[in-house]
Design brief:
This protein has 13 helices and 18 strands. It is of the alpha+beta class. It has three domains: 94 residues, no CATH class; 120 residues, no CATH class; 170 residues, Orthogonal Bundle (Neutral Protease, domain 2), CATH 1.10.390.
C-alpha cells in the first residue's frame, strides 16, 4: 500500500477445516509491541468470510493466532493490513527478521505477511508493488510478468524474505540453480564483484549436491552497521558493516555458509534439533570454508588460518558436541567444522582422492530422499560407510557423543598439515599421500 509508512494489503483465499488461523511463531520479541503478541501485533482490520459472505468473526489469541466464531470446512477469504510501524519507530530493529526500507528497496519477512491455516498445503502468490518497482520472491515463478509464484509448502511460504526494488536485480544461474541478489546501500557499488562471487559459490555448492534444476534462492544484502545473517528456506538476509574487495574472504564465507543451508539445514534436518547442530552448523561452515578455497576466493594460507581459528574456538567448548542444548555459537560451529575437515581428510586419504566430503553429502541427500526423511547418526554413518572405509562409529562414540578431544594432529597430518603450539602449518615434509590429499582439498569439493 505504501512505503513510508510501510504497509501491505493482503487478500487471501485459504482452506479452513476447523476454527483456527495461524502465523509463524518465531518473531523478534525485543520490541514491547511484539513480546507475547507475535506477528499478529502487526495485523489490522482482519476480516474473514466464507463463500456465502458470512463473517466468521476472528478473535485474537495473542501469538497463537485467531479463533473463528464457529468451526467451518470451507474456502474462506481473508482481508487484512500489515503495518510495520513498530519496527519503523524503533529504527528498523531486527532488519534481518522483520523488515527494512530505503529509498529504493523494501524487504519484509514473509512470517509477518501471511496468515495460514492447518489445512493449507501449497500456495500460489501474486505480489503487486508500486509502479516502477519489481518484486523479488524466493519461490519459483508461475508467471514472471505478472509477479506470480508458487510456494510448494506452507513453510516455503512463510519461512522466507520477500524484497521489492526500483533498481535492476542481479541474477546468477549455475548448475540449474537461480539466485537473485538484492544489494542495498553500501552493497550496491560491489555489484560486479557480488555477481562473480556468488556465481562461484553457487556453481560449486549446487554442483557438489548434484542439483539438476528448479532451485531458486534470494540473497538480500542489508546496509546496517552490525554484522549478521539470517537464513530461511530459499532466502538469506545478511548485513556486513563495511564490505570491500579486500575483505571478500570474510563476507563471501558467510554467503557460502548460508547458501549451503538451503541443503543442510532447510532440507537436511536432524531427528533431534539440539544434538544435530554440530552437523548442521559445523559441516555447513566447513563446506563454506572449502568452497571459498576451491573457488579461489581465498588462498591456502587463509584456509589454514580458518582451521587455526576453529581450533581456538573449539578449545572453549565445555560440552560434548551432541550435548550443546540451545547454546549454539562459535565453539560448536568450529568443533563441527573440525569434525567435517577430519572426515573429509579421512575420506580422501582412504580413497586415494577419488571421493570427497561432497560424495558423502550426495549420498546422505539420496538416502534421506533429498531431506524428506530426517536423519540420525545411523544415516550419517551409513553415508560415510558408502563413501569410504573408516572407523566412523568409533570416532562418533569417542569424539561426538563422547567427551574425548578431537584427534586434530592425526587428522591434520592426513591432509599434509601439522599442529604446533596451537598453530596450523602446511607441512613441507609431509608424505606424498598426505600432500595429494591437501592438493585435492584445494581443487574440488
Amino acid at each position: 500500500m505504501s512505503i513510508k509508512p510501510l504497509r501491505f494489503s493482503i487478500v487471501a483465499r485459504v482452506p479452513i477445516d476447523g476454527d483456527r488461523l495461524e502465523m509463524a511463531n518465531s518473531y523478534p520479541a525485543e520490541l514491547p509491541a511484539m513480546a507475547g503478541k507475535g506477528w499478529p501485533a502487526l495485523i489490522h482490520d482482519l476480516r474473514v468470510t466464507n463463500l456465502a459472505g458470512l463473517d466468521l468473526k476472528p478473535a485474537l489469541l495473542g501469538s497463537a493466532g485467531w479463533k473463528l466464531s464457529r468451526p467451518v470446512k470451507a474456502i474462506a477469504t481473508l482481508r487484512y493490513l500489515v503495518d510495520f510501524a513498530p519496527f519503523e519507530k524503533a529504527g528498523w530493529s531486527s532488519p534481518l527478521e522483520s523488515a527494512v526500507t530505503d529509498d529504493e528497496h523494501v524487504v519484509a519477512s514473509c512470517r509477518a505477511l501471511f496468515i495460514t491455516t492447518p489445512a493449507m498445503e501449497e500456495a500460489d502468490v501474486q505480489l503487486r508493488s508500486p509502479a516502477g518497482w519489481l518484486a523479488v520472491a524466493p519461490w519459483p515463478a508461475l508467471n514472471p510478468g505478472r509477479h506470480s509464484f508458487r510456494a510448494a509448502t506452507t513453510a516455503d511460504l512463510t519461512e522466507n524474505m520477500a524484497a521489492f526494488t526500483s533498481r535492476p536485480v542481479d541474477s546468477v544461474t549455475a548448475s540449474g540453480f537461480t539466485l537473485a541478489i538484492t544489494a542495498m546501500g553500501h552493497w550496491a557499488p560491489l555489484h560486479s564483484l557480488l555477481q562473480e562471487t556468488m556465481h562461484r559459490i553457487v556453481s560449486l555448492e549446487a554442483g557438489m549436491m548434484g542439483s539438476s534444476g528448479g532451485g531458486t534462492y534470494s540473497v538480500i544484502l542489508v546496509p546496517t552497521v552490525d554484522t549478521g545473517g539470517e537464513a530461511y528456506r530459499q532466502s538469506f538476509a545478511y548485513a556486513f558493516a563495511e564490505p570491500t574487495a579486500e575483505n571478500r574472504g570474510v563476507w563471501a564465507n558467510t554467503l557460502a555458509h548460508e547458501l549451503f543451508h538451503y541443503w543442510n539445514g532447510s532440507r537436511l534436518q536432524g531427528e533431534d534439533y539440539a544434538s544435530s547442530q554440530w552437523f548442521q552448523e559445523g559441516f555447513t561452515e566447513y563446506v563454506a570454508n572449502l568452497t571459498t578455497l576451491v573457488g579461489k576466493i581465498i588462498g591456502p594460507e587463509e584456509f589454514v588460518a580458518k582451521l587455526k581459528s576453529h581450533i581456538a574456538n573449539y578449545a572453549r567448548l565445555t560440552t560434548t558436541l551432541e550435548n550443546i542444548g540451545t547454546h549454539k555459537g562459535p565453539p560448536l560451529y568450529s568443533a563441527g567444522a573440525l569434525v567435517a575437515f577430519s572426515f573429509d581428510a579421512m575420506i580422501r586419504h582412504a580413497t586415494g582422492g577419488r571421493q570427497t566430503i561432497g560424495a558423502f553429502f550426495r549420498t546422505l541427500w539420496r538416502q534421506t530422499r533429498e531431506g524428506e526423511r530426517k536423519y540420525g547418526w545411523p544415516d550419517i554413518e551409513g553415508a560415510l560407510r558408502a563413501t569410504a572405509p573408516g572407523d566412523w562409529a568409533g570416532y562418533y562414540e569417542r569424539h561426538i557423543r563422547g567427551s574425548d578431544k578431537l584427534p586434530l594432529a592425526e587428522s591434520l597430518a592426513l591432509a599434509g598439515l601439522k599442529l604446533r603450539d596451537g598453530t596450523v602449518e602446511i607441512d613441507q615434509s609431509a608424505r606424498p599421500d598426505a600432500r595429494a590429499v591437501w592438493n585435492s582439498m584445494n581443487a574440488r569439493l
